[in-house]
Design goal:
single chain, 708 residues, alpha/beta, six-stranded mixed sheet, four-stranded antiparallel sheet, 27 helices, 9% strand, elongated, disordered N terminus
Length: 708
């Protein structure tokens, strides 16, 4: 077993508690904060009214890296985000650089937001010379305590803050846009285009929060669906709010408001629009925003030490979870660092430094997509793929690097300095502890160099944790599978021969060739065997869909599985053999079906249910997902009995549901629209979760909870 596989399998897993709105709330909450409520005043000093153009340029440069990050996150939904993606693509050196640097940039952004909270509170309370910093420190400790109780508690708080923020911003934009004074935009380019570009680099930090939800991807339900939708929805919403909001700020505020510079430009615009009430409402929105970004920033940044510790790049204490499922020591380090920044750095330095390193990381993440695509790893299986490949990832690589240069020498030196810190830490601490490489070695392997097979194993494990896609035909493959019973004297070779005979008419291939390929794959170690189940598998050209033949041995079989070396391993008491053949055109689907079968095997009680099942249909039902299938018996007196006497086409099951099999006595019937159902028929229905749930409520005589 590889180092990566061992490390990952032995670590406690984070709970999947975030739904689509939770993803959106974390993403938008880390975006509509300091960049909207605090930074415009500082940016206006550099770019004048053209600050709107600076934000627009920053948003345009953000698009390509965001799409690349979404692709990486749907392929590898693991804690650590940027760190994990860079480590598994470019190798642990760049993973170390990215992990340390991104954690630092995220904590800087959180500190920036906390300063903003103090600035808005100071509009109503005299905080004194150091009061803003002291308030920010107190809030950092408070949000750290909230996060100590886990992602679910933190996200509930986040959702409340985001709802309040969006409600007030909707009012602000609806009232402010019609009141814009266009004369405020005269001398639009007075500061010069160089200042506009430099300011674009400064305000880039405004958008980076939208992707930080990727660092908590391991805690997202259905990440293949919820991550891309949540992130892209948040980015689109943020761009609209920034463009309209900046137009309102510039169009309502006197230029003198920005001269100080103002740390509360939105509150000044609210006051100009609706007097004291407007100022109070906007201040409430600002506080919601700053609380959201500080909370989400602490949540996401604390996952970086956790992920790096799992991979032995940081001491082992950072990987420990408390009883609420949160990384306690990583949270303490994160909050402590934020407090240090608040005491040691000025506000403009915080913004510039955080932006510069984030730009560098976005460039490297775009490069990571190119490396993963070119690695040839079939287990790299994102549900979202960056369009216009390779041009958009290349744009994502070059755009941020160009913008760093526009920011001046100090931010560039800071970004380069973080790279040096990462290199020193890696070779001084981590290098002796890691024995893995990234996908880049698979690119080299194509050129005659070397590769790291542990990455492929880990990605396959991620596929198993992630599960099937909604469109995958797993249930159809199971319900149409061929079932065989192994006799008392059967061995693996004879069962393989019988399976090949079942496959031959389906795949139009000679029986001997099919059997030979299955047996050869087993001899070279390509057949997974786990918990009394073997999964021989092939991919063949010219077939349109996957096929499955299942063999059960109540007595148990002995299977010799080679490891591509002269030695072999004998697995005894194998009670199930799943023979799978899939099209060569879709290797990722083949791997997802294998991963789902392996996941079924690992369910508690699988072995007992499998051996004791009394019919072939019962064997199929052991493999089907409870929320995606339903077994109905048209027993007299039951709710389902009303279906007797009806043709299948006249039943009117919910859209997306399908009668896959009908069991009538000892016979199994393949259903057609003209088949008339009879009393005591047993129907196997497959479909999506909502349709199956509706059928359970309609036809089962027990509450839904009893079926779960």
């Amino acid at each position: 077993m590889s180092e990566t596989q061992t490390a990952q399998s032995s670590q406690p897993k984070l709970k999947k508690e975030l739904n689509l709105f939770g993803v959106f709330a974390v993403a938008i909450g880390t975006t509509l904060s300091a960049g909207f409520f605090l930074l415009p005043g500082l940016a206006y000093q550099q770019a004048g009214p053209a600050v709107i153009l600076s934000y627009m340029i920053a948003a345009a440069i953000m698009v390509a890296p965001t799409l690349c990050i979404v692709e990486l996150a749907t392929a590898m939904p693991k804690a650590g985000g940027t760190y994990f993606f860079l480590d598994r693509s470019l190798g642990p050196l760049w993973g170390t650089i990215g992990g340390i640097g991104t954690w630092l940039a995220l904590t800087l952004k959180s500190a920036f937001a906390l300063i903003g909270m103090g600035a808005y509170i100071s509009l109503y309370v005299d905080l004194g010379e150091h009061g803003i910093v002291l308030v920010a420190i107190g809030l950092a400790v408070l949000f750290g305590a909230i996060n100590f109780f886990g992602a679910k508690a933190s996200t509930r708080f986040q959702v409340v803050m985001v709802i309040g923020l969006l409600a007030i911003l909707t009012w602000f934009l609806a009232q402010g846009v019609p009141s814009i004074d266009t004369t405020r935009f005269k001398d639009f380019f007075a500061k010069g285009f160089d200042s506009i570009l430099s300011t674009a680099g400064l305000v880039f930090i405004s958008y980076v929060g939208v992707t930080k939800v990727a660092s908590i991807a391991e805690e997202v339900k259905n990440p293949e669906r919820n991550l891309p939708r949540g992130i892209l929805l948040a980015l689109g919403s943020a761009v609209i709010v920034y463009m309209l909001g900046l137009a309102v700020m510039v169009g309502l505020n006197d230029p003198e408001v920005f001269a100080a510079p103002s740390l509360t430009p939105v509150a000044e615009a609210g006051k100009a629009m609706a007097g004291r009430v407007g100022q109070i409402l906007v201040t409430c929105a600002a506080l919601f925003a700053f609380m959201a970004v500080a909370n989400a920033g602490i949540l996401s940044s604390s996952r970086y030490p956790l992920a790096m510790s799992r991979d032995h790049l940081l001491p082992s204490g950072f990987r420990n979870l408390n009883r609420f499922g949160a990384p306690g020591l990583a949270l303490l380090l994160t909050v402590g660092s934020i407090v240090f920044y608040l005491l040691a750095l000025d506000i403009m330095s915080i913004a510039k430094y955080a932006s510069a390193f984030q730009l560098l990381m976005f460039a490297m993440l775009s490069m990571a997509v190119v490396v993963m695509r070119e690695s040839g790893l079939k287990s790299y299986d994102p549900s979202f793929r960056t369009p216009l490949y390779p041009w958009l990832p290349l744009l994502g690589l070059l755009g941020p690097c160009w913008l760093i240069l526009q920011m001046g020498p100090t931010p560039s030196i800071f970004a380069f300095g973080l790279v040096i810190v990462g290199v020193v830490w890696f070779f001084g601490y981590a290098a002796p502890r890691v024995r893995r490489g990234g996908a880049i070695y698979h690119v080299f392997e194509r050129l005659g160099q070397r590769r790291f097979d542990g990455l492929d194993i880990e990605l396959r494990g991620i596929m198993k944790d992630r599960g099937l896609r909604a469109s995958d035909p797993f249930d159809e493959v199971v319900v149409t599978s061929e079932i065989m019973e192994a006799g008392e004297d059967a061995d693996f070779e004879s069962i393989t021969q019988r399976a090949a005979e079942r496959f031959a008419p389906l795949v139009d291939l000679d029986v001997t060739k099919i059997a030979t390929q299955f047996l050869e794959g087993t001899r070279v170690g390509a057949t997974p065997v786990t918990r009394g189940v073997a999964l021989p598998h092939l991919r063949l050209p010219g077939i349109s869909r996957p096929y499955l033949v299942v063999a059960r041995s109540r007595r148990g079989l002995d299977i010799n599985v080679g490891d591509a070396m002269p030695s072999s391993t004998t697995h005894r008491d194998v009670h199930a053999v799943f023979f799978l053949i899939s099209p060569t055109a879709d290797p990722a689907l083949h791997l997802r079906i294998l991963a789902q079968l392996a996941g079924c095997v690992e369910q508690e009680g699988f072995q007992e249910e499998w051996i004791s099942a009394r019919s072939h249909q019962a064997l199929r039902e052991v493999l089907l997902r409870d929320d995606r299938y339903l077994s109905l018996v048209l027993e007299p007196g039951s709710s389902a009995a009303t279906l007797a006497g009806k043709k299948i086409r006249d039943i009117g099951f919910p859209s997306g549901s399908l009668v896959a099999l009908v069991r009538r006595g000892s016979r199994t019937l393949v259903p057609s629209g003209d088949l008339e159902l009879e009393s005591d028929d047993r129907l196997t229905v497959i479909g999506d979760e909502s349709g199956i749930s509706l059928l359970k409520a309609t036809y089962l005589d027990v509450p839904d909870s009893a079926d779960s």
